[in-house]
Amino acid sequence: MPELPELEVLREYLTPRLQGQVIAGVWVSPKLSFMLRTPPEDFARQLQGGSFERVWRRGKFLIFDISGQHLVVNPMLGGRLQWSPASEKVAAATVFRLTLQSGDELRFLDTVKMGRVYWVPPGALPTIPGWAELGPDALSVEFPDFAQRIRRHPGELKNLLRNQAFISGIGNAYSDEILHAAALLPLRKRTTLKGDDLERLHNSVGTVLRGGIEAIRAQPNYEPHKQDRSFMAVHGKGGQKCPRCGHRISELTARGENTDFCRGCQH
Ligand SMILES: [Zn+2]
Question: What CATH architecture is 4-127?
Fold first, then answer.
């Protein structure tokens, strides 16, 4: 699932490529059009001829402003945006293709078919499921505010970090990384944290997310639809050695999602 760092680098990558570009053609997969929250005929007709104004991000949503309207992508578990020449082979998981006058294409792919795409007029963003509840961006929350906000949300730390109403942009992978950086166990209850734990957790949110952005930016063969998370310390590394203490990394699986952490140095 793309999270704040992946979407942030994607935004940076697409902005200079899309700004001012005009959509010359729109194709929607007949089999996957259910992922569009707009009738596919309307989607194709209205986007045709539109020009890209801005690419921005809110939490885990990516938004394209096109001729005054908003194309909103919520990639969920497996949604990916691909940037390619129109001549490139079309992957089976392609949901839509926007062909630009330049001959390049912006494609949306989803192998698990959970992503959602919305095409909404100005002012209608809050009608998108999950939008109105979004808390402030995880990278924008300063310390005393972070501590005050977290008190409103009970529960285990991993779920808390992923609660988009608390702070937005963090999902399954980066929550593991943040908790490892903060040396806190994922199932630990928020109510057991002391003042300096909270400060360390807050610092780790910033360090890990900014570090993720830097690591992705630095990937020499960066392609937006491919996700390389080999730079991570514990997530996806169950059974390997913890880079901080050398203990074997533990992995728990629930509802198809893995939680990776180190019993050696997280408490
Ligand atoms: Zn460790």
Answer: Alpha-Beta Barrel (3.20)
